Amino acid sequence: MEVITSYLITFAVGGALCVIAQLLIDLTKLTPARILVAYVVSGVALTAVGVYEPLADFAGCGATVPLTGFGYALAKGVEKAVDEKGLIGALTGGLTATAAGIATALVFGYIVALIFRARPKEQIK
Amino acid sequence: MKTTKEEYKKLAKDNTPRSPVLRDCVFAFLFGGAICSVGQALLGLFKALGAEEETAKTLVPCTLIFITVWLTGFGIFDRIARYAGAGTLVPITGFANAVVSPAIDNKAEGWVPGVGTKIFSVAGPVILFGTLASVVWGVVYYVMTCVMK
To answer: Which of A90, A89, A37, A15 is nearest to B86 (CA)?
Structure first.
């Protein structure tokens, strides 16, 4: 029962974060690329003010999988690095914490681009 | 037949297609929620396989990215995204798709100016502004910890 509840929370929080973006797309002129940037920066800001960590503890992947979670990882990364190494951590922490995701996207993105040919489709702008 | 202003308004309203906003939001909610739940299931799986908490948490976005780039290559992701909208855009899947999709599309321009440049066309701004925000927060956090000591 506990497992089901936790999945429902994950589903609801993750879904809600997507609905906010969908409303921004439908009701404003924000493009998807701008929304991704806004989500990451919001994630950093919400972590900085102490809102996002409780949400991540509460919703798990419902909060960490959306792009705001990328911002959360960046912000937690700098906090940890600053705690350990001082001011230099402000420069190293963010990218260190997100390195695995970025490297995966670039490496496999490149491999897939090697293999597949372009097909007519809509592009994210 | 003469139509009054009110009648015209009603006529125009009846003939305008129903706003897709609600439908878009329902799809975004369902797909977004589902992707996050898959992430949660992967987290449980990695832990069950003996990965440490931190490693498991790192592997979740990596796995979702890995799956997405292949689905994008096969053209399946775009077909799902057409219905899911923000439901596939906002999760890390949207980031992964935005990395690989322009890289494939601009392959003809060459490996460096085509793939190498375009692979960052959306990832670049995301990484730039994310890093910028995190460094600003890092400096503020450093000052805060100094003051509190």
So the answer is: A15
